[in-house]
Design a protein that fits this description.
Blueprint lengths: L1 H20 L4 H22 L4 H24 L9 E4 L4 E3 L2 E8 L4 E6 L10 E5 L13 H6 L3 E14 L5 H20 L4 H11 L6 H10 L9 H15 L2 H14 L4 H19 L5 H15 L3 H4 L1 H22 L9 H24 L2 E3 L2 H9 L2 H14 L4 H26 L5 E3 L5 H19 L2 H5 L1
Parallel strand pairs: 4-6
Antiparallel strand pairs: 1-3, 1-5, 2-3, 3-4, 5-6, 7-8
Length: 470
Amino acid sequence: MDRAILISIFSFAFGIFVSSFIFLTPVVSTFFIVTALAMMLGEKVWTGKIEKEILFVALALISFGLGSLRYAVKDFHEAALPLREGVVVSEPEQRDNATRFVFKSDNRERALVSTDIYSPVQYGDRVKIDGKFKIPEMIEDFDYPAYLAKDDIYSTMSFAKVEIISSGHGNKIKSALLKIKHSFVGKIRENFSEPYASLLSGLLVSGRDAMPKDILEEFRKAGIIHIVVLSGYNIALIADFIRKVFRNNWLSIIAILLFVIMTGAEATVVRAAIMVLTVILAKMLGRKYSAPRALVFAGFIMLLENPKILVFDPSFELSFLATLALIYVVPIVHKYLKFIPEKWSKLKEVVATTIGTQLTVLPLLIYSIGDFSVVSLPANVLVLLIIPYTMFVGFAAATLSYVSAFLALPLAYLAHLLLAWIIFVSNFLGNIPFASLAVPNVSAWLIALVYASGIIFVWRWRNSPRHLTN
């Protein structure tokens, strides 16, 4: 049963992958499905039963056809420019001296709009925009049109003049959650100076959108940018905290779903949340939890909702690979760190996690970005150990400040010290001349070969007599 499900899911994903590069008409996709059904029917009539091999092949063909059909449905779009009036359907973000938001016009077309950085526009505002709509173009080797199209955005407008007509046209729940988020970030800014306020906001609720550009660049060069992108690591800590606070499975599920909505439901957040929710549901149903199955299930749900993220969303790809590394690669690395004493088990865990995840995502990073951090290992070792404490103390300080800023002062001071250490590490290591090395363009086939070799190595290691004995 498990094998049949895995074959179906991977064939579905492969159908999406092929359709991302080669246009398959619905007729071709339907042909795969009809062929598979005819194959099973013929086998049943001819032999009186359906052999396992025939069933698996049929399932693969049907799932491939369904995957390509799902992509075709998502990719269908009749070209049309947005109208001038519509609603702001995303949380506006300040980036590159501008305020950016997704605009959904009255003809249901979406556009990515950039306006003045001090614009008061908010999620749910009905606005009238003035400017020139443009069709997105390729940025060197980056397929920017496909990247935006995954979110149904087919137009952009820069330097737009925005007139707010009315407010309150967004989802009521999301609007309320964003108000809570803005209030919480406001409390953080009241208790912490910059850049510490932005860093703490990034760790807890805002991701890297809250961070100044120069600090982000230092984090990227130091190889610790993942701590401020609301990665699976952050979400796992937050979800575990929520579960312990509520001590009720249903309340925990609701709280985690609300948190996902509040943070914008990005790929890393959704994947991590699905995996955590799978853990909770498994405990509720008295079932054993399997991390690989949970990851495959999370990926399948996300592809079903938006198939374009498989190829055109680097965030999804990197987070999925990093989680695979935690499951399959980190245990291998851990075995080779015997020189680290067991009394330093936390340090050993951080070193293994850093090496395992960095090795796994490195080929994709080199292919998509063109550089990698040489100082990533020491930076992560110096930072990751204190991230849970920084998040907890910072959250407690901001929450307590609603009652009394004076009572929150000791916790705010402690959080400030922890945040200052993170900033210091990123500043010191990120500004070393050789911290980040550029790599020439490499072939996608070479990257595929590297990952294929890695899969074979992991498979052989997991099936080796020594590992099976242990």
